């Protein structure tokens, strides 16, 4: 009986096929949560890593990455947050940034939350731009969109983006202006929104029905 139970458990896991989104230049294999009724796609790059020669410059669309050759990429794990203006070990009165302990320059990422049983192939989309005074936060530090997607009963896609912060995203000065761009973090936000326009239809979203929402990094946000 124990052997039969193990076999049945393994079969149930295998049969829960991972959702795959085909973006044309790449495929992403997401994860499914039966409790929330949501398919999750985590850590999707919307732009090249803003490091090296691309540091303090406009973000480069990820489609220009020649290494993307129609492969399927695992998108079940959260990506790193952008480098924070406040170190994660700083503690009170500035705790933070709410547990963004894994940080990287390669952080121009977003998450897409899709209802597993959508009511349409052209769903409205909500895009969250996290707060934090341009120095803190990430896609995972604000109130996630799980509850909204679940409550929509198949009627909403939720996108969580992140962007360069602090000196990486908002360094001023003439040298930056001459050799890069000021307010690079704002260019990142625009690049993420452009990515949504180009690719959200692959997840069942309607690029003509996108709403932008912002909030702070308080866990009590509703």
What does this structure look like?
The N terminus and C terminus are likely disordered. The strands form three sheets. A six-stranded mixed beta sheet has the order 3-4-8-10-9-11. The protein is of the alpha/beta class and 222 residues long.
Largest sheet: 6 strands, mixed
Q: Give the C-alpha Rg.
A: 19 Å
Distance between the termini: 47 Å
Number of strands: 11
Range of strand content = 15-25%
- Specify the helix fraction band: 10-25%
Number of helices: 5
Strand order of the largest sheet: 3-4-8-10-9-11
Q: Uncertain regions: pLDDT < 50 for 5+ in a row?
A: 1-15, 218-222
Q: Helix/strand/pairing class, anyone?
A: alpha/beta
Order of helices and strands: HEEEEEEEEEHEHHHE
